[in-house]
Amino acid sequence: MSAKKSTGSGSSATGIKIIAQNRRARHEYEVLQTVECGIALLGTEVKALRGGRVNLGDAYGEIKGGEVWLVKMHIGPYDMGNRMNHEPFRRRKLLLNRREIRKLHPKLEEGGRTLIPLKVYFKRGRVKVEMALARGKKLHDKRQDKAKQDADREMARVIGRRG
Fold first, then answer.
1. How many separate domains does the chain show?
2. Which of 20, 26, 40, 143 has the most CB atoms around its CB within 10 Å?
3. Which one has a higher pLDDT value, 87 or 133?
C-alpha cells in the first residue's frame, strides 16, 4: 500500500493544484460565466509555473481570428533557463474548441463585457486557466457587496457568541 502525499494547495482527490488566483477579479467584475481552458506554453514557462512565478493582475482574454488569446499575463523567467528562456509578457493561445469559441464570441461583443482569468492551476499534470466572462462593477455595486460582507461577518460573530 502506498499513501499519496498532498503537496501545496488544492485537492489531491481531483488532482488540482492551484498556482495563482486573481482575487481582485471578483471585486472588480461581476462574473457571468466561467470556462476552463488549456493554454499553449513553452517548456521554460511550465517550469516557472511550477515555481509559482505568475501574475494575473492585468491579464485579459481576446478573440482574434477565431482563436482565444491571453494577453498581459506575466510568467517570470525560469532561473535555470538559458538564452532560450521565454518572454515574460508574450501572448499565449488558449485552447478551446470551435463550438465554445462560437458561444463565447457574441456574448463578449455585448457592451462592457470582457474575458478575465480567475485562476491558473495544474489538473492531472496539465496547466489549465479558468477564464470568466465578466462585466465591470460600478462603484455602488462594490459598496453593496462590501455592506453585505460586513453584515454576514457580524451575523456570524453574533451566532458564534451564542454557541
1. 1
2. 20
3. 133
